[in-house]
Write a structure and sequence with these properties.
This protein has 185 residues and is an all-alpha fold. It has one domain. Helix content is 79%, strand content 0%. It has seven helices and no strands. Helix 1 runs parallel beside helix 7, helix 2 runs antiparallel to helix 3 and helix 3 runs parallel beside helix 5.
């Protein structure tokens, strides 16, 4: 298990560093990392996290297709959402988290509400990455903060360290994308 987690972490770091640079290869690294995490999270009863990684796997394919823009040969530009759209997004994440947490509450699922929050938040935020929405990095700061706790709780210490490094990389990603966002205007 430890060796699998090491490989998952390596590919996950590669994904994020490549995403910060807006490099399409990030989606290959995401595919490999999530393939491993599907198994790891299921094994420690974080079912929503395991299902989330199936979604990540599909989003890695979608992200690659969306970023490649082969027909247009134009780079996908960074965008930002209105406050109204952000507010609606946060409400949706909270409602979905409460509903799925409630459904998982009577199972052997570990921390069903927090697991649901990180899952639904990640589902939504991963979509934001595929669309190059600038504020995705700020969402990740909150989601990964909760994820650090969940992974420490399940003794997935390397993954908790990964998420801690994600906090730093997310700040750098926000700075990098913000610079690109204003340069393209």
């Amino acid at each position: 298990m430890m060796l699998l987690e090491v490989f998952a972490v390596i590919f996950a770091i590669a994904y994020l560093l490549l995403a910060v640079r807006q490099n399409i290869l990030c989606w290959y690294a995401a595919f490999l990392s999530t393939s491993i995490y599907i198994y790891l999270y299921w094994d420690v009863s974080l079912y929503m996290e395991s299902i989330l990684n199936i979604y990540y796997l599909l989003m890695a394919i979608y992200g690659w297709i969306n970023w490649s823009n082969r027909k247009e040969k134009i780079n996908l530009s960074i965008k930002e959402w209105s406050l109204k759209k952000h507010f609606a997004s946060v409400i949706l994440i909270i409602v979905l988290s409460l509903l799925s947490g409630l459904l998982l509450n009577n199972t052997e699922a570990a921390r069903p509400y927090l697991d649901s929050f990180t899952t639904w938040g990640s589902v939504f935020t991963t979509y934001m990455v595929t669309q190059k929405i600038l504020s995705n990095w700020l969402y990740w700061l909150v989601i990964n903060g909760v994820g650090i706790f969940l992974n420490i709780d399940k003794e997935l210490y390397l993954t908790a360290l990964l998420l801690l490094s994600y906090q730093v990389i997310s700040i750098l990603g926000f700075i990098n994308w913000r610079k690109s966002y204003y340069e393209q205007k």
